[in-house]
Amino acid sequence: MKSVYLMAAVLLSAPALALDEPRTPLSDPLQSGMWSYHQKNLLGDPEKIEFDDRVIVSAPASAEDSFNVPVLVDATALEDVQQMVFLVDYGPIPKILTYWPEQAEPKISFRFKIDQATPVRAAVQTGDGVWHIGSTVIDAAGGGCSAPAAAYASDDWEEHLGKVYGRVWPDRGRVRMVVDHPMDTGLADGIPIFIIEDLELANEATKEKLARLELYEPVNEDPAFTFYFPDGALGSEVRVEGRDNNGNEIDALISAVVSQ
Amino acid sequence: MVCAPSAAVFAAPKKAYDLSPVQVADGLWMIEGSTEYFTSENGGAIVNCALIETGTGIVIVDTGPSRRYGEALLEVARGLNGRGVTAIVITHHHPDHFFGNQVFGATPIHALPETRALAASEGDGFADNMYRLLGDWMRGTEPVPPNADIASSLLEIGGRTFQTLPLSGHTGADLALLDQKTGTLIAGDLAFLNRAPTTPHADLDAWRAALSTLEGIDAAAILPGHGPLDRSGQSLTQTRAYLDWLEATLEDAALEGLDMVEIMASELPPEFAGMGAMPQEFHRSVAHLYPQIEREALPLGN
Question: Cα(B20)–Cα(B32) distance, rounded to whole angstroms?
């Protein structure tokens, strides 16, 4: 389907007539062949959209481990961020993650599975409806999306399912956590999609919602995140709740005190 | 270089390795690799190889990153001794150390049993990555695992005897070889000098134990896997210091809740910043080691 769209874009040389042309055509600094397609289909063809250097996407230039590519996105230079959508131009499943920072800073670290060399995008929507796009390129040997989870090499992976390892640093406005889950993409032979779909962070003392995430298949096995908060936003305990697509619930309390 | 005009239009000159053997002990030559990371300029000639004269010909230790490199190595060996190559020894299963094997036909290629198994199971995956990194240098290269087990503590070839040290830590099986005639220790990638150690299959505790074993040998000289010949034992102390620093840095980062990208952005201490292949190897090591280290550092929340 994608290739049909692209073919159409090439054949119809007048830009206004191209089936693929977004409402607001942009000049992609990376000149990727897939960007306008994603702008239209994954971001809903917004009218107000721009590439913006204030959205900083940091990642290694080359993926050492195709199953665990780290990315840090920082949009703290923008005011009033509503949501952050992370995606790749090239890969069988382009959408990685959507983040609603709510009480958190518009900044997050995560890892994902890469299938080939590709631009990585952060699309950040502010309260005025404008989408601000930041990018980087990651080179990769590939294959990260179509292999079985490493967890299946051990017999006891089910006992670990949904375990949350994490810690809160209230003074530094930081939460780090790793959630045990195979995050099967559905692309490995005979293994259906099995992924965490939602995660939510709340202040355990006040019950106030802190931040929310929607995860897609490319998020790495045993997803790992750092969340960043402004001064005073965090208490000493954070409740983490979530659910996977098989209905397994995740519920954990992570705290500032290291329990030994 | 003179090319036939018709050929020059279509074919770029073939990239060639320029291997210069340097004699470092009696009947023992070293080919010293670049201390860089793999690039399409260096063709993967980043590894050290040893050539050792015996009564039946040359023993080669490690065969380099490609078929073309293996061919160049064979030429060097024939230049040193008219009998050519009598045997090969492979220190471990990383591609820059054994991808020249296919050139040597039916010659015995000795390695630890686990090295043979790892070369067989991981060779094709390595090849994919090496073709991606090196391009045309790799043309025609196919991984050929070693074909003979090293199963005793002494290896005798053509009247020359080597003590074999079956160790691990850099990978699951690392062979060090002590030439009894000259006291030269061929350490493989258990020892690096002025080049950042690599960790894709590392077990840091096992690696440190292996370094202790090597430190206990009174070697006349150490031929590290990467970097210049070492006559002072500095390759062992430097490799240990780097592994200790690397582990402590990652453990500290886990206690601070840092993400891998944040760690990669941190500045290297001066003693390690100047090593070859930095900061790439540090970045690679963060990717190899941090997930496990941080997992052990973070408390369970449910």
Answer: 8
Cross-chain Cβ contact A253/B301 below 8 Å? yes
Question: Residue A167: which of B200, B257, B288 has the nearest Cβ?
Answer: B257
Low-confidence ranges of chain B (pLDDT < 70): 1-14
**Segments of chain A with pLDDT less than 70:** 1-19, 142-147, 258-260
Whether residue B152 lies within 8 A of chain A, CB to CB, comes out as: no
| Cβ pair B299:A252 closer than 8 A | no
CATH class of B5-232: alpha beta
Chain A partners within 8 Å of B299 (Cβ): 165-167, 254-255, 258-259
Interface A-B, measured as beta-carbon pairs within 8 A, has a size of 88
Residue type, position B73, single letter = L
Please say whether the beta carbons of B76 and B19 come within 8 A. yes
**CB distance B259–A70 less than 8 Å?**
yes
pLDDT tens profile B121-141: 999 989 998 998 899 999 999
8 Å CB contact between A61 and A105: no
- Sheet of A196-203, strand order: A49-51, A131-138, A118-126, A81-88, A95-100, A209-215, A196-203, A237-244, A249-255
- B257, A226 Cβ separation under 8 angstroms: yes
- Are A64 and B294 an interchain contact pair (Cβ–Cβ within 8 Å)? no
Kindly determine whether residue B299 and residue A258, on different chains, have CB atoms separated by under 8 Å.
yes
Q: May I ask the CATH class of domain A2-255?
A: mainly beta
Cβ separation A164–B300 shorter than 8 A = yes
Sign, CA torsion B207/A70/A118/A1: positive
A178 vs B129, B260, B295: nearest CB:
B295
What gap in Å lies between CA B28 and CA B25, rounded to an integer? 5
* Residue position matching structure tokens 């500032």: A256
Cross-chain residue pair B283–A60, CB shorter than 8 Å: yes
User: Domain coordinates of chain B in residue numbers?
Assistant: 5-232
Which of A70, A71, A166 lies nearest to residue B298, judging by beta carbons?
A: A166
Interface test with B, best of A71, A72, A114, A257 (most B CBs within 10 A): A72
Q: What is the DSSP string of A154-170?
A: STTHHHHTT-EEEEEEG
Residue A30 token pair: 């990376």
A169 exposed, middle or buried (CB, 10 Å; 0-12, 13-18, 19+)? middle
The per-residue pLDDT for range B210-233, each reduced to its tens digit, is 999 999 999 999 999 999 999 999
pLDDT of residue B10: 53
Rounded to 10 deg, the angle between the B204-215 and B234-255 helix axes is: 160
Q: How confident is the model at residue B13, as a pLDDT?
A: 58
Contacts of B264 in chain A (CB under 8 A): 60, 70
Rounded to the nearest angstrom, the minimum Cα separation between B129 and chain A is 6
What pLDDT does residue A150 have? 74
Question: How do the domains of chain A map onto residue ranges?
Answer: 2-255
> Distance of alpha carbon A240 from its chain centroid, rounded?
17
What pLDDT score was predicted for residue B8?
44
What pLDDT shows up at residue A7? Answer: 47
Kindly write down the DSSP assignment for every residue of A70-139, as one continuous string: EEEEE-TTSSSEEEEEEEESSSSS-EEEEEE-TTS-SEEEEEE---SSEEEEEEEEETTS-EEEEEEEEB
